[in-house]
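Incident log, structure service

09:12 report received: a user says their structure output differs between two submissions of the same chain.
09:20 pulled the input from the user's history:
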Amino acid sequence: MLNQADVTTTIKTIPWFLDLSPESIQRLSGIADLRSFEDGEVIFNEGDQHPYLYVVLEGKVCLESFVPGRGSLPIFTAESLDVVGWSSLTPVVRQKTSTARVKGRTLLLSFNANNLMSICEKDCDLGFVIMRRLANIIASRLLTHRLHLLGLITCQHDGNNDV
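09:34 re-ran on a clean worker, output below:
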């Protein structure tokens, strides 16, 4: 397990946090934990109210969405420095929009969403950077999800059921 100085050093290397002040980095370090997962483990399930936001440090996380008649389909593979679990920071809808399944041994930097929201409210500069980056992730994932759905529709119209 990393000590506090190692967590701080790790956070400083993540592009998501590059614009932050040293004080904001220290606040984040104080609420960050490392979590390790093995191949095939599920971090959270679609519809869960899982209270963590994660940054992938090593390994991969496959995000899957259930499609009636098709089963669980992969929609995105998060790799090093990608963020998963962003819906834990949305104040109204905290249910996970996908299932997160680990591919290979994976190391994640985790933040409890309630603790992260609390420091974002106290440190407006930190809150602005986090929410701006979160908005970009949500927009990107919605586009990716839409393209997957359009691909499914196109396959059905072509008579091809392979995705």
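09:41 both user submissions now match this output. Likely a transient worker issue. Closing.
09:42 reviewer note: The chain has four helices and six strands. The mean pLDDT is 87.
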